[in-house]
Specification:
The complex is a heterodimer. Chain A is an alpha+beta fold. Chain A contains 16 helices and 17 strands. In chain A, α8 crosses α10, α11 packs across α12 and α13 crosses α15. The longest helix of chain A is centred in the middle third of the chain and has 20 residues. Chain A is elongated. The termini of chain A are far apart. In chain B, strands 2-3 form a two-stranded antiparallel sheet. Chain B starts with 5 loop residues before the first helix and ends in a 6-residue tail after the last strand. Classes of the chains: A alpha+beta, B mainly alpha. At the A-B interface, β2, α2, β9, β10 and β16 of A face α1, β1, α3 and β3 of B.
């Protein structure tokens, strides 16, 4: 079972011969305070087996009770995915034996998911929009965490025993299942990544999940199958588990396409099985084949009563939904008049919300972008934090901008003012005062500096006198240097031209 | 409802991780068939207009406030475990011989 020993075809060749069909099951952990069916805390990183109640351990005689907030979160996710919400739905027991569940079943939903038949429009990097149909979103509970001990690799293979922590057992999960996604062609890996990114963004925006993939808040199982071009019937699929970063989703789909193509090229059938993703080798290995043991004998959970919705409840929740992320981006870009490239940079830098707040506080979109993409991003990079974590408030930017517009400071000085404010020296005005940063607005010292600069560069002065007005920059530079940047460059230029008797 | 035969019982026993002898399978297939037969009479009474239900009482939407309650301590949680290590339940190798 060594990783990466499978034959693969090049992606390009695979695409020439075959048409990929994708499908995703994304599990989202909700950020409710308590678990799905017990009042144990839903928290990450605590001492093992302390966030547990008898319900979570499946002790005899316990009675689970549904977390009402988790149900509302599930409905919100369903609405955000344009799903229909079931009028009546049930919980079911999915029976299996594995130490990650102490009950020997997972409480889930089977025939009647709370949300069904939705869609999500996914925008790819170049603006192409791809509609992904959502089959269902259902409520269930997470399993405990296994740590395999005694083997050389920390993997399940070769382990001597395993240790189980049930803190995660019972954490509310929403499983979102797509319908088969056809027609993505060579963009399948890119679409896979964009789809999971969109789900993560939506649940984060809804405030129903922390959506941290590195903590397993959002987990993806990716199904891939290939069929020859022009054939309608789907090929045999594999389901790659443990794909828990956006980059890994893209790579796993690409790898499975290449591996399937190589297998099919030899005339062999694809084995329907789960595959394990290995980030280190960027490849998958065979997991467990589908077998008749995958017979979960679902039956209605006798300890839980149905969830019944009505229009008033659903509409109340719909009214609470925030603006969808994709629509918000469209609106903001239009409002601000940024080019596609400018806006993409803003989004990638993670400063879109900051700019929104800053514009709302009263500066132009151009000024807000200049600050957040310029000085603030630069300082954030140096400090290795997110720009929004630097402590720059919209009000601070408004005040800095007002100082610049009134001519009291210039762009260059404003950076020193920002440094002073971030160093805790007070408000921008106070920093200007304390550091003596105000622009020299008295013409006297400026004229003195101008005479000095003209004397230092007589040939330039002659050129300007001769009509080469663009040469004035060299003199302005000299004056700014002499005044340590504390002069208003525009005023300096005016004065130089006056001095030399040239029309600006 | 479909009949329950010996193969069904053997399949269910395997899923449930229960070892059953040939004799037990025969006996159980017979007993379960009687139960299925009895329950069939219910469908004779209930017409198509009566939906299947898993609850005798027509309750719905029994929800809990999202408020943290009492939990077990680590020691309490592990009390019934046959074996433990490092504050966690210790279980035998999951994949043996693979």
């Amino acid at each position: 079972m060594t990783a990466g020993t499978d034959e693969v075809l090049s992606f390009e060749e695979a695409m020439e011969k075959y048409d990929p069909v994708l499908g995703f099951e994304v599990h989202v952990e909700l950020n409710t305070r308590t678990k799905m069916f017990s009042s144990a805390p839903n928290a990450f990183g605590d001492i093992p087996n302390t966030n547990v109640t008898p319900v979570d351990l499946g002790l005899p005689g316990v009675l689970p009770v549904v977390n009402g907030v988790a149900v509302e979160s599930a409905i919100k996710i369903g609405l955000a995915l344009n799903c229909s919400i079931a009028e009546k739905c049930y919980f079911a027991r999915k029976n299996y034996f594995y130490p990650d569940t102490p009950k020997n079943f997972q409480t889930s939903q089977f025939e009647d998911p709370i949300a069904h038949d939705g869609f999500l429009d996914i925008e790819l990097a170049d603006g192409t929009v791809f509609r992904v149909e959502i089959e269902r979103a259902h409520m269930e509970e997470d399993a405990g965490k296994l740590t395999h001990m005694g083997g050389s690799t920390g993997r399940i293979q070769g382990a001597e025993f395993s240790l189980v922590d049930y803190n995660r057992a019972g954490v509310p999960l929403i499983e979102i299942v797509t319908k088969p996604i056809e027609g993505a062609g060579s963009r399948a890996p890119e679409l896979a990544k964009a789809y999971v990114a969109a789900i993560r963004e939506i649940v984060k925006n809804l405030g129903v999940s922390d959506a941290r993939m590195e903590r397993g808040n959002v987990r993806c199982d990716a199904n891939v199958s290939l069929r020859p071009h022009g054939r309608e019937r789907f090929g045999t699929r594999t389901e790659t588990k443990n794909v828990n970063s956006l980059r890994a989703v893209e790579h796993a789909v690409r790898y499975e396409i290449q591996r399937h193509a190589a297998v099919l090229d030899t005339g062999t059938a694809i084995l329907q099985e789960t595959r394990h993703w290995h980030e280190d080798t960027r490849s998958t290995t065979s997991g467990r084949p589908k077998s008749d043991a995958d017979d979960y004998r679902y039956f209605p959970e006798p300890d839980l009563v149905p969830v019944v919705t009505n229009e008033a409840w659903i509409e109340k929740l719909r009214a609470e939904l925030p603006e969808p992320p994709a629509e918000r981006r469209k609106r903001l870009q239009a409002d601000w008049g940024y080019s596609d490239a400018e806006f993409r940079d803003v989004v990638n830098a993670g400063v879109m919300s900051s700019i929104e707040d800053t514009v709302a506080a009263g500066v132009s979109a151009a000024v807000a972008r200049k600050w957040w993409m310029g000085e603030i991003s630069r300082r954030a990079k140096l400090a290795d934090v997110e720009p929004a974590e630097l402590g720059v408030t919209p009000e601070l930017i408004v005040e800095l901008n007002a100082l610049i517009e009134s001519g009291k400071i210039n762009d260059k000085l404003s950076r020193d003012v920002l440094d002073g404010v971030l160093a805790g020296e007070g408000t921008p005005s106070e920093v200007v005062e304390k550091r003596g940063l105000a622009v020299v607005s008295d013409d006297g010292p400026l004229l003195e500096a101008i005479d000095g600069a003209l004397a230092a560069q007589p040939d330039v002065a002659d050129k300007i006198r001769g009509g080469k007005v663009q040469a004035v920059g060299a003199i302005v530079g000299g004056v700014m240097k002499a005044t340590r940047g504390q002069a208003d460059a525009g005023r300096v230029r005016e004065l130089i031209l006056q001095r030399l008797g040239v029309e600006g | 409802m479909a009949e329950i035969n010996r193969d069904d019982v053997a399949h269910l026993a395997r899923l449930a991780h229960i070892d059953m002898t040939d004799e037990e399978l025969d006996r159980m297939a017979g007993e379960l068939a009687v139960i299925v037969e009895s329950i069939k009479t219910v469908s004779e009474v209930a017409g198509d207009d009566v939906p299947a239900t898993s609850h005798p009482i027509p309750l719905s939407n029994v929800f809990r406030e999202d408020v943290v309650g009492e939990t077990l301590s680590n020691e309490e949680a592990l009390l019934g475990a046959p074996d433990n290590a490092d504050g966690r339940f210790k279980v035998p190798a999951i994949l043996d011989g693979e």
